[in-house]
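One record is given unchanged without comment:
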Amino acid sequence: MAVSATAKVASHRWIALTGLCAAAGLVWLAFADLGVSLPTISTELAIGVTDLQWTINAFSLACGALVLAAGRCSDLYGRRRVLLVGVAMFGGFSLLTAFLSGLAGLVAGRALMGVGAAMILPATLALIPPMFPKEEQPKAFGAWMAVAWVGQAAGPAVGGSLTSALGWRSLFWIAAPLSAAAFLVILRFTPESRDENASGGVDVIGLLASAAAAFCLLYAFTEGQTTGFADPLIIGLLVAAVVLGVAFVLVERRVREPLVDLRLFRARDFDGALTANLVMNIVFAGMSFLLALYLETVRGYSALEAGLLLFPSTLTILAFNPVGSRMAARLGSRTPVAWGLVLLGLGTVLAGLVSTDSPYWLLLVGLLVLGAGLGLLSVPVSNTAVAGPPPELAGTASGLFKMSSMLGGAIGVALCAAVAKGIGSGQARKDALAAGLTEDDIDKLSNALSGSDAAAAVLGQLPQGERQAVMAAYHDAYAAGVAGSVKIAGVLALVAVVVVLWLWPRRR
């Protein structure tokens, strides 16, 4: 007697999920594992760390710009098919990049890995609803989210360990066999699904407009941290992003087979989920970025040590993931999302109480509380955003969901860094003037904590006692800037509770 397709899917769905989670986990690991290895790569290849930063930026830009288009393509051409192409690209170009030595090759290789990542993320999410019955979907989404959080949190530790043991190239070549294993599991056990009602091809104009708008916005927020947001190029990119975004909406309203079906946004729970996800990523990315710099620059820890000190938030994320799922099943997704944002806000404000000599336990409490909040809201948000819309739009919904994550991360780092710099610079300038330094010296000391040559020259002219006093003042100012910015991020999460509750209708 032949086994039905439904029975086959039911018997293999958890094995298939391991392949989906493995593919997604490799992507999230790639987002976070390379940063700690940049100094080693810089020394070996004689390339500046600032230039090498583009190996990280290229991956994020390519993935963020194309994730929405990749989600729609998965609806049209098959989510499993697009996922397999993405895994093959990610693993193949990762292996190729392991043998490259020039800056251009490394940046290009990481960018092409980012294209593969853009195909992987929405497809892995969109394949969950058709494989799992509704009552099991929260568990499946919970597994996916757990892998994502662990991948991001463990990235620095994994990157540092592999670089120390096997060299930095191991970060690239080790992804190839892991990608191959995920590819085989997906190929063998994952059923195909697509939008069976789609009759046209890809909305090329919409695809180009959305990709260009996302690229301009992400590039502006990434590069603006270095050049300043008053730079004409950054202003031009932000204006271009707005113009392209408006053009995209106008195009989508007129074409028969749009890249994004704008009817998705008529569902207020979908809007609430996207808003919560955007704010969650703004707050968490900005907070993590600043606290890592604080631990390294002010407290003197290595990048690997800083990553380990921030890791406890991941433990409470994992612990509260199932709690959020159970609350959603009993009370609806709106409740755990709202409480999750409250805990995220309170925990982030607590983490913002750091100073140059604050005890670690104070930061630890904040990390544990905000991690609990992230755990509560992560699964209900993803379940609502991906499984809530019509099944034929699962890929598009997943693409929008992951694009909000990418944009939130970029915006969070840029805005939190800008606020921290504004607060810290004001205090540092005041202390430096009180110490008798000139305005010219203060300008040169703006990068005192990063060890710039100009700052070192000014410090070298000062007597030992004054030099220590100035550096202490800059440490105090830096810590104050980080603390102020992190607290503001926490307040943003608390304000978002009101917005999300207004958008998200009560469960009836």
